[in-house]
C-alpha cells in the first residue's frame, strides 16, 4: 500500500463535510491546476457508491474515478474498493489544532508508485488548502 498524509487546521466536522460533500469535492479534487473535477456524486454509506469526473481543463482528457464504500464511520474512517479490486482506507484523527488525514491505497500497475504517491499527495494538499481557506 502507498500512504499519503497531511494535517488540516480545521475542526473534524468541517474536514468531514469538505471531504464528503460533492459541492466541496469539485473544488479540491485535482492534482494540478490544469485539471479539475466538474462533477461529483457521493452516496456516503457502507455499500454506497461515489463518482468524480476528473478532466483536463483544456477538454482533451477525462475519466471517472469511482468506488464502493466498504466502511463509513463518520468523522473517523472511510474505506472503499475500486472496480479493479484495489482498496483505499482513509483515517481522520483529531489532533491539537486540527485533523490528521492518513490515506492508504493499493497502487495500480500502469504508473510508477512514486508518481501515484505524488499525485494522491497533491490532491490531499489541495484538500488542505481548500479547507483552510474557507
Automatic annotation (TrEMBL):
InterPro entries: ASHA1/2-like_C, START-like_dom_sf. It comes from the Bacteria. Residues 9-132 form the Activator of Hsp90 ATPase homologue 1/2-like C-terminal domain. Coiled coil: none annotated. Belongs to the AHA1 family. This is Polyketide cyclase.
